[in-house]
Amino acid sequence: MNAVKTAEKHGGDVQYGLGRQEGYRYGGCSAVLQRTAPDQPVQRNLRVLYVPQGFDSIDNGIVDALRQTAAETEVSKPAELIEKARDWKPDLVLVLNAMHVFPEDHPAHMDLLRSWGIRTAVWFADDPYFTEYSSNLAPHYDYVFTHELSCIPLYSSLGCSRVYYLPLAADLQLFSPARVPLQYQSDVCFIGNAFWNRVALFDELAEYLSTRKIVIAGAHWNRMRNYELLRPQIREGWVEPSETMLYYNGAKVVLNLHRPAEQGQDNHNTANLPGNSINPRTYEIAGCGSLQLTDVREDLTRYYRPGYDIETFNTAQELQKKIEYYLTHEQERNRIAWRGLWTTRQQHSYVNRINRLLAVVE
Asked: What is the pTM of this model?
């Protein structure tokens, strides 16, 4: 790709004064940004009332896309939905996920909206981890969108006549290349909660990772058997998306490990469906122009090309080997990261997804 050669040249031009490696990476990212144009919004004559889940990195991207796409957009808290819909009279109520922070009588609220002639849609962003709840919610909507391939047959079997696969994306206003302070720079970074498969992986790699400058951030990492070995480099608790972006930009290698899907593994997946689709973290890391090493989900190759614009691993041993390789091969690391940034900006914005969603509804 000519853009990679341009990025290499641009990276070299601006690296001085920024720190050689960080300047080289950011300069190349800047060249990609100048040569890519995310999807343009397709104007729809729809008044859309959006109800967020509280996933800021997703909600904000959707709201921004709706405001570029729909004729009018309003946002409502879950508890205020009925009052807002009655007063504003939208053409469509779009709900993200409909769980956790939503009132227990939310299904009845959706039935009421439909009786008023208001179309309703839900976009499940937590599939398949909460099928115990989503199975009860889905039949109360006119349109069901899910980012998880394995859930399509489930919702169809429940009598939902309009079920659509719609992958997640990255909020490209937030997850974009940036120059970051030294405290956010690392060799290896992982941001996420300590689900048991992640605990097992980091326990196995703890001795190796303890020799590197790493950042692990999220909840429940004291579950690790080797917690004390990595404790100085673990940040317990929630990390805001705006700070997550800084960690991604500051890392030479960013790890992505999907959570387990099995019922009982910190999940409520009573349908026991597999996790086939990639998480939003996949797009967000790539949107920052950082090298990503991810485990493999079935639909990964629909969106990225392993070895070209993303890297993958299957075992802890393979992951360690690839971390070591890319830490010592800066040019290859940056080439893959720049290609991942290019792919993400061209194909994986929330404007792209909202264009697709509203085309179905309209």
From this structure: 0.94
**Residue 347 CB burial class (10 angstroms; 0-12, 13-18, ≥19):** middle
| Dist. CA 138–CA 251, nearest whole Å | 39
CA pair distance 51, 63, nearest whole angstrom? 10
| pLDDT, tens digit (0-9, with 9 covering 90-100), for 55-84 | 999 999 999 999 999 999 999 999 999 999
Q: In what order do the strands lie in the sheet with 311-312?
A: 234-236, 214-218, 186-191, 251-256, 291-294, 311-312
Cβ neighbours of residue 328 under 8 Å, at least 6 residues apart? none
How far is Cα of residue 269 from the mean position of the Cα atoms in its chain? 20
CA 180/CA 5 separation, integer angstroms: 24
Supply 184's token pair.
């956010």
d(CA 247, CA 209): 17
What is the separation of C-alpha 261 from the centre of its chain, rounded to a whole number of angstroms? 17
Q: Report whether 338 contacts 28 (CB < 8 A).
A: yes
**Largest distance between two CA atoms of the chain:** 63
The separation between CA 170 and the C-alpha centre of its own chain, rounded to angstroms, equals 6
Question: HSE (CB half, 13 Å, CA atoms) of 26?
Answer: 19
Place of tokens 């480099």: 233
